[in-house]
Amino acid sequence: MALHVKYPRVLPEGLSGGSFAGYIAICEIDYAIRIIIPQARQDLQLPLQSTHNNFVGLGNTTVPITSLQDGSLSVEPVLAQLLKPYESRLQVLWRQSPNLPAFLDELVALAEDASRRAQWQPTSSAVTIATNVVKLYDTLLSELDDLGWEHVSSVSDACDAVTLRVLDEDSREHIVGIKLTSRYPKAPPEVVVDLPQPFVLLWPPPPFVKRTDSDEDEDQASSTGRRVRPRFGVSGLAFVVEQFRGVVRQLQPLWRELERFDTSTWVLDPVSPARRDVMRRVVVCKNTSIQISLDPNYPTALPESKFLGPEHTVGPLKDKFSRNASKWNPEDTVKHNLEMVLEREFIAKTSAEAVDFTMECGICYAYDLDGAIPEKVCEDRRCARSFHESCLFEYIRGLPGVRQSFGTYFGECPYCSTAITVKMT
Predict the structure, then answer these.
(1) Which of 300, 332, 318, 161 is nearest to 240 (CA)?
(2) Looking at residue 302, what DSSP letter applies?
(3) How large is the average pLDDT for residues 153-165?
(4) What is the C-alpha to C-alpha distance for residues 180 and 233, in angstroms, rounded to an integer?
(5) Residue 17's pLDDT is what?
(6) What 3-state class would DSSP assign to 140?
(7) How many CA atoms lie within 13 A of 156 on its CB side?
(8) Model-level pTM greater than 0.85?
């Protein structure tokens, strides 16, 4: 009989099928178990015929009890104490068992016989804890079955957290982290996502509805020991993903606008944008850039903008922006609108014009310094070097006879000696 039929709570820990973990029932109490199959006994896997690439983990809930010809068997500490005197017997059962389900049959029979001989019973508190853990474990496996294992990126060792992969309509991959509490599914899970706005989870899921499977099919599945999927329309995890997809669907226009800048302009910041980032700092001309922030709800509207660079280049750009802002067309793309308003096209980082640009700090020779980028620019057109404000502050503060007033330091550009100021950082 296949493993997933006889022992539905024991699943592969990975795609290779070399190790299995889950729970087995002994005297009507569930215990955690892990078995690592050595390369020499890969024949044990042949009759498994698992229908899933499921993978689970049990963390530190099990302890090794015996080696099995280079493999290993680990069980819960309380069960390990009961089985320790039978280690040699377990070795014999391992060698004689034709497959993994057969070995588990012998293991369960041995453990039940040992518990009866010793008149052994675990404490009620241990049973309560184990029952709660198994319930959460069963709930997670059942809901992942309902959702589809192709969406699963990882499952925590304690089986109380799962990371899911979700593709949007433009084939972008999104990661959804879900942490299950001990009161799940009565209490909502904790959800961590990368979005430009808060993800508000509605809970609980809508009332469950009966599945279309006939009662006869369910009875037959139950009698064979196969895990029966709950008879409802959508599971808790699927309900989370459904809501996340709805939010992502509304954000498609925003990400499309931002990706136009990422793919066809020179974006200075952020260097590796996350899904939550709605800001882009884009090169306009040498030593001059524009920082825009798009509204997630109205991504093609006139964005909040800030020009960065020397006044002799920023001034004319501000004038053009003010003069042409009324021509903004929300039906057009943000990139095309900005080029129309500024009366010039953005350059790509790979273009010939970009080769002569110097964007790093003229003092530390780095661009990114603990998240800060060079924003202070020398006003001399022949120089126009950029500096981190913190670097420039430290440089000017060390000059002999430096002058300061109300937190502003007055000094000279380290390259051309043109007067330059910087505020105290």
Answers:
(1) 161
(2) P
(3) 86
(4) 20
(5) 60
(6) helix
(7) 14
(8) no
